[in-house]
Design brief:
It contains eight helices and 13 strands. The longest helix is centred in the middle third of the chain and has 13 residues, at about 85-95. It is an alpha/beta fold. The protein has helices at about 25-35, 40-45, 65-75, 85-95, 155-160, 175-180, 185-190, 200-215; strands at about 1-5, 10-15, 15-20, 55-60, 75-80, 105, 110, 115-120, 145-150, 170, 195, 220, 225-230. α3 (about 65-75) links the parallel β4 and β5 (about 75-80). About 30% of the residues lie in helices and about 30% in strands. The strands form three sheets. Strands 6-5-4-10-11-13-12 form a seven-stranded mixed sheet. It is globular. The chain starts with a strand and ends with a strand. The protein has a single domain, classed as Vaccinia Virus protein VP39 (Rossmann fold, 3-Layer(aba) Sandwich).
């Protein structure tokens, strides 16, 4: 359910609470309007998390809507997002809803190692994802500029910052999923479930599946085109 508030915010009902979400252009409006319908498998996954024992790392958080839902449920969340325009909206949403204690925002990309990546970053389009720095060519997303982007691996993020390791890991980066998994072998040993968006090509599907199954995860059947849910057997 959406309720229009003063200019710039819409309200959604979630877990018995009302969340105010920033709407700053057509892209952010679309994300808010489809928050529960665009990826119902993601909503069900977040609903299944036990607040007192769950930690979610959201890699490629964008404007952070799923991070916000998890944090509002009581889950501890670490959101990774390199695009400054998206970070502005994510921070607005976090502060507006009083979630700063449970939602940590790290303004970095995630890759297979600590490095500087070149990424196509939108200059004016809030709510657009940065073109994955791991790819050499992606369709245009409007006005963008190539910028150097600081990147960490999942394992290095754990080592560099005093943050709780994830029990649940969400990856949505539009390319480079294999590198991210390779850079998080240690952290993945503690993860109970992984929700990952995988490029729609056989090579990526096979590579990601091989890596996760090799780490002891089993793929669960979910009705989704790109998202894959992997869990450790009980």
């Amino acid at each position: 359910m959406l309720e229009v508030l003063e200019s710039g915010y819409q309200s959604v009902q979630w877990n018995g609470k009302s969340l105010d979400l920033a709407v700053m252009n057509s892209a952010t409006a679309y994300r808010v309007e489809t928050i529960f319908s665009k990826e119902p498998e993601t909503i069900r996954w977040i609903e299944s998390m036990e607040p007192s024992t769950s930690v979610l790392w959201d890699v490629g958080a964008n404007i952070g809507l799923y991070s916000l839902l998890a944090a509002a449920k009581g889950v501890s969340v670490v959101a990774f997002e390199p695009a400054i325009s998206n970070l502005e909206v994510l921070q607005k949403n976090c502060l507006r809803n009083g979630l700063a204690e449970s939602l940590l925002i790290l303004p970095v990309a995630v890759s297979g190692q600590v490095q500087v990546l070149r990424a196509k970053v939108p200059t004016r389009k809030l709510g657009r994802g940065a073109s994955a720095p791991y790819l050499v060519s992606l369709p245009s997303q409007g006005s963008s500029v190539d910028l150097g982007t600081a990147a960490l691996s999942l394992d290095s993020a754990r080592e560099l910052f005093d943050v709780a390791p994830p029990t649940h890991l969400k990856i949505d980066v539009d390319g480079g999923e294999e590198a991210i998994l390779r850079g998080g072998v240690s952290i993945l040993a503690e993860v109970r479930s992984v929700l990952i968006e995988v490029a729609d090509n056989p090579e990526s599907q096979v590579a990601v599946g091989s890596m996760l199954s090799g780490l002891g995860f089993q793929r669960k059947a979910v009705p989704a085109r790109f998202n894959q849910l992997w869990e450790r057997p009980d």
